Amino acid sequence: MVGAGEVPEGLYYSREHEWVKIEGKLARVGVTDYAQSKLGDVVYVELPEVGKQVKQAAEPKGKEMEIGAVESIKAVSAAYSPLSGTVKEVNPSLQERPELINTSPYNEGWICVLEPSALEVELKQLMDAKGYTDYVKKLE
Amino acid sequence: MTTNIQHRTFLIKFRRDSTFWACYPHPKFPTISITGDKCALNCKHCGRHYLQNMLACQTPDILRKTCLELASNGVHGVLLSGGYNEDGYVPFAPFLDTIEQVKNDTGLFLSAHTGLVPNWIARELGRVGVDLADFDLIGDDETIKLVLGIDRKVEDYRTAMKALKRSLPHVVPHICIGLHAGEIKGERVALELAADITPQALVMLVLVPTPRTEFEHITGPSPAEVGELIAEARLKFPEATLALGCMRPRDARRVEFELQALHAGVDRMELPSEQTTEAARKLGLQVQRIEACCSVSSSFTGV
User: Fold this and answer.
1) At the top level of CATH, which class does the domain B4-290 belong to?
2) For residue A43, what is the domain's CATH number?
3) Nearest CA to CA, how far is B247 from chain A (Å)?
4) Which 3 state secondary structure label does DSSP give B74?
5) pLDDT of B155-179, one tens digit each?
6) Could you give the ipTM of this predicted complex?
7) CB contact under 8 A, A44 and B250
């Protein structure tokens, strides 16, 4: 894959390579196409517990910012929450089919749904599709 | 459930070394494919699938540049791998001079996933500075035919493994439990064969029914079967470093496989789950981290 891969318009993106889709008062979250391509074949996804309170990812990273972990054959990477809030729902399909992260990162491979606690403020910390594409170009 | 044999084998491990090593190859110990995603075979458990996750270095020049860059970025070592040729080995011949140069220029720890290399390539791999051979060991002629589809025999595995042992500092047999389409077949013979080289380390793997391969829909071995075989390996090689490798199912039975291996007395595990490291602590083991493949020699700490 060259560059950022697929970067759909209308989503928000974090520096940790998670995407956010606003759905009314809720936010659906997953990892980007770029992130999944770097991970390789995903073989296991650790999901957060429903009800977990998470904080928006920032430096230094902490467990309270994690919404699980994504594991490939030889690597495990924490997934960091792009927003603060409460986990309302997780994607049960990933337990049986972790490869959905690879095959459908923006649709069937979503990780969880959050109820954001500071949406308006925190969205300003995220990037739009163009901003994320530029960000990834600088990493390459 | 822990069996009597596992009580014994765990004690063997615990008395010798009370450390449980959790191995994380990424990002300090990447895997390189010298054939890119090409493989002359189309093994039923892999179907060229796993090559796609490796760093592709299909020419000696790309290999040299990649290794120099990796070393300058703090990488400790690499696993040199790739697809097999029709004789069932990774075609290292055109890369030998480059491997020697990489070793001399970077000092990287070099592991090689070899396959059934002929004697002269085994000798050359040793000469150019490869530290360790990760050797897939199969103990059944029918399994070789079924999975790799080549006309090679168990004796060929013994011959190649012994040639590597004569030439390299370390040879680590890898035995895949359930490789015969999920059945236990040649694993115990493979353990017997491994004894021929008195291995310092042994890696046990578990067949993964990988999507989009011919074994996609097979049912692999049960966690109990895996635990039993690992316990047998521990009994047979009480002094060897015994590991549960990265190739194992990480489905709903993941923790069961890991706990079976833990109770059977493994020293190392690649990417263990949190439940497993917690269980290791409860058993009195000190959990330590290695940033490398689980097969690396004990003298190579990777940190």
Assistant:
1) alpha beta
2) 2.40.50.100
3) 7
4) coil
5) 999 999 999 999 999 999 999 999 9
6) 0.77
7) yes
